[in-house]
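Appendix B, Record 12. Input sequence as logged:
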Amino acid sequence: VQLQASGGGSVQSGGSLRLSCESSVSIFSLNVMGWYRQAPGKQRELVATITDRGSTNYGDSVKGRFTISGNNDRNTVYLQMGGLKPEDTAVYYCYADRYYDGNYYEYWGRGTQVTVSS
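Logged structural output:
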């Protein structure tokens, strides 16, 4: 499974960005897809995830500002980010996991930089 992330960039505080993560396999074959982020000097943290049934989960710091959604036809998950703050500056990583052939697998895409200026 390969995950291709796109959509990062620079934006001013209060602005919006949309990240995309395209999977090389049907997202129905994945258990969870989503996003984590890592700021300099900090641990990687959960941003948002969505299950194959459409259930979503958000990190506390982004609730109410970010929305995760999926497009099954395009095997793509989106992260719509609004009300961006400088503390949202980080490298954002696309993530997926699945159970396949009796085993559990995790997959990570290359990170995409999001920079929010005050």
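The radius of gyration is 14 Å.
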